Amino acid sequence: MTSWMMYWLLMLDEVNAVFVVAGSLLGGWVLFMFCVWLWSLTPPVSEDDKKRAELGKRCGLRYFPLFLFALSLAVFTPNTKQMAAIIVVPKIINNKQVQEIPEKLMGLCDAWIEDKTEELGKGE
User: What whole-number distance in Å separates Cα of residue 96 and Cα of residue 3?
Assistant: First the structure.
């Protein structure tokens, strides 16, 4: 693993926080523009209200995809612990020495069971 990869691995929590803040701000802006649009549609409707309604509608529709994008990045960006598990667990599982441990452990357990069985057989 390079130092650059290690840096980004350790910075994933901060990157995720940036996406959460950006998504929250965009979500608030979209909600505000939606409220402006709804407020502008209530009677009496003047030319200024129609302009505000159009502005609110355009801004809300323009920023809503950005809000969804930032929210999805915040949700699907792994944190540092998850990314470490994504990188490290396959290397551990695919290691030859680790794969031999169950065989050695089973042999050790079999020998221990045989010893205990012999001790129990002699005790009777």
Answer: 26
